[in-house]
Amino acid sequence: MKLSKVDLSFQSCTAEYDEANVVIFSCPMDATTSYRPGTRFAGNAIRVDSFGVEWYSPYRDADLKDYKTCDSGDLPLPIGAVEDALDMIYDATKTILEDGKVPMMVGGEHLVTYPVLKAVKEKYDDLYVIHLDAHTDLRENFFGRDLSHATFMRHAHKFLGDHHIYQFGIRSGDKEEFEWAKKHIYQRKFDFEGLAEAVEALKDKPVYITIDLDVLDPAVFPGTGTPEPGGMQYKDLLWAFDQFEKLNNIVGADFVELSPYLDPSGASNAVAAKTLREMVLILQKNLDKKKQK
């Protein structure tokens, strides 16, 4: 799959694909959304809103303008054709990885993470996943589908293996999902306690980070399809980002589940745009760390 930068890019992420080392791409898909749809509009809503967010992050003490990042825009996913869309996401991720670049994916519903993980796992066999979310996403099937936004991590476990998934902030799911998790993954309910210890344990492992923004409390982030009260504050997420900076081998990242039209105030778009700035800078600084070794 051929990728290139788009005219309407995220902030200063305007490098050509060939010169970039981090590539943003968005996946406009909400085909299996089970409650309130609209996540397919997230990518470009974030791009528009990013013009209201500073390029410099005081949290990372880093500036997007100092790095070569390409924003390749929305993938042209076929509406309603779930398997075809997943194949296209897999192919795009595979291309980015084969070209020696780091994927930064923006959803879309959380199912779009599944083909990205599949491609990343093929390159990094001993892959670990840090997953921030309100929901377990560990059902075997949902509404008759094996693959959906409520099942993707259970099926990713089939190729990731036991104890390669670390979940934090979980506060919603079926009893069977929580019972299954006790045997097969690390799961922290309700908050991010234990994240610092997990980062230390995985410090030199290849790590992929996936964030469902509904891990945040609906008072902070109302623009999502399945809001869950009792969530994190944005300062909690910034603390998590501080922990991620201590990792030595981040091989990809994403965040998902912004549904921009569910929040007429636009605050959720601003949260997502700021999150993308922080995540891109974390990936870029991680690459700097690797170069210094």
Could you give the order of strands across the largest sheet? 4-1-5-10-9-6-7-8
State the distance separating the first and last CA atoms: 32 Å
Helix content percent band = 25-40%
Instruction: Please name the CATH topology.
Output: Arginase, Chain A
Helix/strand structural class: alpha/beta
pLDDT average, as an integer? 95
Order of helices and strands: EHEEEHEHEHEHEHEHEH
Task: Give the total of beta strands.
Answer: 10
Number of domains: 1
The backbone outline, from C-alpha atoms, is globular
Number of alpha- plus pi-helical segments: 8
Describe the structure.
The protein has 293 residues and is an alpha/beta fold. It has a single domain, classed as Ureohydrolase domain (Arginase, Chain A, 3-Layer(aba) Sandwich). Helix content is 34%, strand content 17%. The chain is built from eight helices and ten strands. The protein has helices at 42-49, 82-98, 113-123, 152-160, 175-184, 195-201, 234-244, 267-292, and strands at 22-27, 56-57, 62-63, 69-74, 102-107, 128-132, 165-170, 186-189, 207-212, 250-256. The strands form two sheets. The chain has an eight-stranded parallel sheet with strand order 4-1-5-10-9-6-7-8, sandwiched between helices. The protein has a two-stranded antiparallel ribbon with strand order 2-3. Helix 1 packs across helix 8, helix 2 runs parallel beside helix 3 and helix 3 (113-123) packs parallel to helix 4. The protein is globular, with a radius of gyration of 17 Å. The mean pLDDT is 95.
